[in-house]
Design a protein that fits this description.
Blueprint lengths: L3 E2 L4 E2 L11 E7 L4 E18 L6 E2 L13 E7 L8 H11 L4 E2 L4 E2 L2 E5 L14 H9 L18 E2 L9 E2 L2 E7 L5 E9 L3 E3 L6 E3 L13 H6 L13 E10 L3 H18 E2 L9 E10 L3 H21 L13
Helix pairs in contact: 1-2, 4-5
Length: about 325
């Protein structure tokens, strides 16, 4: 398949790995239905971060914020397993240390690795979580091609539409998309879709995957509409959530600009997930800048929002039925 153009942007086919210097790897446990996804940028990338949802859980993300002494980061780890899954970050840190990758401190090189998790303990086994070994395995599996999507890595146990619990939810997963804009700048996104809300058709706003009207029904309930009729979840339940996104570009950005790019990419989450950024979600976007291409930041933000929305939609379109939860790719 060759790239195609819509007249303004050239749509690429490799997703996040269309950004030179990035490799992506997954490790999946199909018995326990959990896993982790590793984004490696061993040559170093300028990082940024934007957190929206009220239930985020992270590790090592201070280096992605402006004002931190470290200028470049080396990996992002996205994992299932709730806070337990942050253990996978250590596996990636160990992998990079063995390869001599890291921030030079004078006595050792310290890999700068950021991590974030989603809650998938209500699907599969709640006692099995991503481990140090799983993080290392995902890093060792990292490749430029192919860009795996669907029920892999951190998306193995992902679900969407949990107003009525997992019993009436649908399968989420990993999706990715990329574009090239005028001047040669590229912007790409990888999303792990585990939202409380529904994933919607960006053009129409109608749900594509999400809460169903009953455990045996294929009809979508429309979470936002149900909530406006008074059907709400008042407490953080057993089926918690979160959509995790990594946006990358070959444009040259500093840390303030990278964080701004992450913030603008959140518009893509709002286009593709309804409702979004709830108090039950830990929604966040990492941004990575690799390369020396000059590009207007606001234009990059437009592209980032578009590829983020497309990656989220692909995350459900490529997800198959797993663990008794129906998926669109069945």
């Amino acid at each position: 398949m060759s790239p195609k153009s819509d007249g303004n942007m050239t749509v690429l086919v490799g997703g996040l790995t269309d950004i030179h210097g990035i490799r992506v790897g997954h490790a999946s446990d199909y018995e326990a239905l959990t896993g982790c996804t590793v984004i490696l940028c061993e040559g170093g990338a300028v990082g940024g971060l934007d957190v929206r949802g009220g239930a985020a859980s992270t590790r090592g993300v201070d280096a992605f914020r402006p004002g931190h002494v470290v200028e470049r980061v080396h990996a992002v780890v996205l994992a299932g397993g709730s806070a337990f899954g942050l253990e996978a970050v250590s596996g990636v840190t160990n992998y990079l240390e063995r390869r001599g990758v890291g921030f030079p401190t004078g006595t050792a090189r310290v890999p700068i690795v950021g991590g974030a998790i989603l809650y998938d303990l209500a699907v599969g086994s709640p006692k099995a979580r991503p481990t140090v070994e799983m993080g290392r395995a995902a890093a060792e599996a990292a490749r430029i091609r192919p860009m795996e999507e669907g029920c892999v890595g951190a998306g193995t146990g992902a679900t969407v539409g949990k107003l009525f619990g997992v019993v009436q939810a649908m399968k989420g997963g990993v999706g990715s998309a990329a574009v090239e804009i005028y001047g040669g700048a590229r912007v790409a996104a990888l999303a792990v879709v585990n939202a409380f809300g529904d994933v919607v058709d960006v053009a129409t706003g109608r749900p594509l995957a999400g809460a169903r009207t009953g455990p045996e029904s294929a009809e979508l309930a429309d979470t936002a509409a149900c909530m406006k009729r008074g059907i709400v979840r008042r407490q953080f339940g057993a089926e918690a959530n979160t959509t995790l996104v990594v946006v990358a570009t070959n444009a040259r950005l500093d840390k303030v600009q990278a964080s701004a790019l992450a913030s603008m990419a959140q518009a893509g989450c709002a286009r593709a997930v309804s409702p979004v950024h709830t108090m039950f979600d830990g929604d966040l976007v990492f941004a990575l800048s690799l390369g020396e291409v000059d590009a207007d930041l606001n234009t990059l933000g437009v592209a980032a929002a578009e590829v983020t929305a497309e990656a989220i939609v692909r995350g459900v379109k490529t997800a198959r039925t797993l663990g008794g939860v129906p998926g669109l790719a069945s």
